[in-house]
């Protein structure tokens, strides 16, 4: 009898599976798993070495299995396009875990610094946006914890567990990330899962794995401030590393303010970070996150209305790998939203934190539809110069946009500048070259400021804050998208920009 009681107790202890079979911390009720044709990956820990772990999305195809090796297991669920909600059962000799209310959709990772962190409670028209947001029950989100680490963290610390939108949680979630999902979903019509992993005031190095850090020039940002981790890799370790095995569709990035004192290096740093994130997410998800997954970013926004050049223009240029637009031959599957013309000089959250995240998210979605989803009919880029012609008098330049196919909306005459031979860099002042005339696809600017000297460079919107809200000079008249900032060498005698 005593023996039976003892066995029953043992049975209860093991039956409860106190931590014996576990999923990684970010698998929970209400989550979104990546939909087909990609296969969602599940992984976790278990005690019994060599044991089989079985996972089944109830009612959806066959079970998936994995052997426990070194205390870990990892498996690929079948590709599922049905949105659900489903129950997911995970079992082994060590226990049984059930996930409820799981949807299948596209999973996007949102990362960066304070403008990504900028919460829904601060966005323009916040109460209307939150009221709308909480009705969208097939957008789900989670946040990583404010944590830093000098070594890679296997099991992510969770800040906000996966949730259906609620007023209390949506107020505290990233506005750009959420609005991006909201607008994107109206085109895709299936669930979207968002992982918010961001921290204000942090440089790109903090989010970069060691492989990326090693491949670029070393940048030091001085002593570590109290507000926000700056050390290389410290947030990659704590807030990204553990996510690599989760199948995702893509990532959205809004960062750069903290790197505006080292602008040339940013080109290498951003390319390296994208390359390493892609390689490692692809490898750890057993090939299910694409090796070239779509990476969207918000080009640096504006700050105050003081009219200085500063480091922001050069950083914006670096963000595009010195092309002026994305994607380009150095940035495959990379898309951009311009934000320099969406300032908020009187933002109660500081002018560096504009409240106009709706327009930012709209522009991201236009780019994502084309670049990340292959909707090639969606125009997502503002006008960009393809040819610069010098007049015979030498007193004007004509800048042609989009090989003559642009339909320009010219809102004022400001923003073009020229650098005369020998007198230019990305940080100093240049000579104003106001617009004197324009046609449907080109603008003519006054270049007499260079006198008899050769015009070396034409630059546009080359200021930290180049204009008031939606009041830069050049827009596309159909999409309303702005021409992005540029810094272009004028070909000797004029001609195509190469
Ligand atoms: C805020 O709401 C007003 C009134 O509906 C609207 O006109 C305006 O465009 C909204 N602003 C933004 C940034 O969405």
UniProtKB/TrEMBL annotation:
Membrane-traversing stretches: none
UniProt key word Calcium: no
GO biological process, one term: carbohydrate metabolic process
Domain Sialate O-acetylesterase, first and last residues per copy: 106-302
Alphabetized Gene3D superfamilies for the sequence: SGNH hydrolase
Protein name, as recorded: Sialate O-acetylesterase domain-containing protein
Signal sequence coordinates: 1-19
MF-aspect GO terms: sialate O-acetylesterase activity
Keyword vocabulary terms for this entry: Hydrolase, Signal
